[in-house]
TrEMBL record:
Superkingdom of the organism of origin: Bacteria
Protein name per its UniProtKB record: Pyridoxamine 5'-phosphate oxidase family protein
Annotated segments matching region Disordered: 204-239
InterPro entries: Pyridox_Oxase-rel, Split_barrel_FMN-bd
Length: 239
C-alpha cells in the first residue's frame, strides 16, 4: 500500500510500510490522534545492554508528541534519552472480537499504532506544562484538588517526549468476512462482540475518613460517557 502525504495532515507518512494485510494501514492523522487520546497506557521498547526491554507506561499526547515521565534516579528510558538510542512506543485498543464461521477466519477489531524515534527531554521551561498535561490526561481535574508538587518531587522527575514523526497505524473494523455463496453453514452464528470499558464505583483508601465526599474529578471520571477531551485542537477534523 502506498499513499501520498497530505501536507495538512501532519508529518509525511513513514518509509516503513505494513506488509501483512496492508489494506488495514491508515495514515489518517485524526484516527491516530483519536486512538492516542482514548488510551492511557502504551508500551515503550528499547534495546538496553544488548537486551530488548519493554515497559508499560502511562502517557499523554500533547500536540504532535507523546509525553512520558521518568525518575531522575535511573531507568532505561532516561538512559535511552541521554544516549539518543532509538525507541519504539506502541498503543493498542481492542474494540471487539469477530466471530466468523471458522476459527481461521475469526479475528479482532482493533486500532494500533507504533511510533519510532528518539526520546528527548522536554525543555525546562515547558516541563511543568507537559507534566500537568500528563496528569490531566490520566486524572482530569485532580491537580486542582491536591497539593502541588514539592521541590524534591519536581527534582526527581524528568519529562520526556517522542515526536509523532515516524508512525505506523493499523486497524480493523466491521464484521466477519462472509458472502452468500461462500459455502459456509449460515445457520451457525457469526458476528461481532464489541468490547466496552467503563470506570466502576470509586473505593476510598483506608485512611480516608468515612463520609468524605468523593471529589469532583473522580465523579466526573466515573460518570463520563466518553473519553476526556483532547489536549489541543489538532485532533479536530477539518470542517
Amino acid at each position: 500500500m502506498t499513499s501520498t502525504p497530505n501536507p495538512s495532515a501532519g508529518p509525511a507518512a513513514p518509509v516503513r510500510r505494513i506488509r501483512r494485510l496492508p489494506d488495514r494501514e491508515t495514515v489518517d492523522r485524526f484516527a491516530l490522534h483519536e486512538l492516542l487520546d482514548a488510551e492511557l497506557v502504551g508500551h515503550l521498547a528499547v534495546v538496553a545492554g544488548g537486551v530488548p526491554v519493554v515497559v508499560p507506561m502511562g502517557y499523554a499526547r500533547v500536540g504532535e508528541h507523546v509525553v512520558l515521565h521518568g525518575s531522575t534516579g535511573g531507568g532505561f528510558a532516561l538512559r535511552a534519552a541521554s544516549t539518543r538510542t532509538p525507541v519504539a512506543f506502541a498503543v493498542t485498543s481492542l474494540d471487539g472480537l469477530v466471530y466468523a464461521r471458522s476459527l481461521f477466519d475469526s479475528s479482532m477489531n482493533y486500532r494500533s499504532a507504533t511510533v519510532q524515534g528518539v526520546l528527548e527531554p522536554v525543555p525546562d521551561d515547558e516541563a511543568d506544562a507537559a507534566l500537568l498535561a500528563l496528569s490531566e490526561r490520566l486524572m482530569p481535574g485532580r491537580a486542582a484538588e491536591v497539593r502541588g508538587m514539592r521541590r524534591k518531587e519536581v527534582a526527581a522527575t524528568r519529562v520526556l517526549r517522542l515526536a509523532l514523526d515516524d508512525v505506523v497505524m493499523k486497524q480493523r473494523s466491521g464484521g466477519p468476512s462472509e458472502e452468500p455463496d461462500d459455502g459456509e453453514d449460515h445457520a451457525a452464528w457469526a458476528g461481532v462482540v464489541p468490547l466496552v470499558r467503563r470506570w466502576a464505583a470509586p473505593i476510598a483508601s483506608g485512611l480516608t475518613p468515612p463520609g468524605t465526599p468523593v471529589p469532583e474529578s473522580v465523579r466526573a471520571l466515573t460518570t463520563a460517557q466518553s473519553p476526556p477531551a483532547t489536549l489541543d485542537e489538532a485532533s479536530e477534523p477539518a470542517a
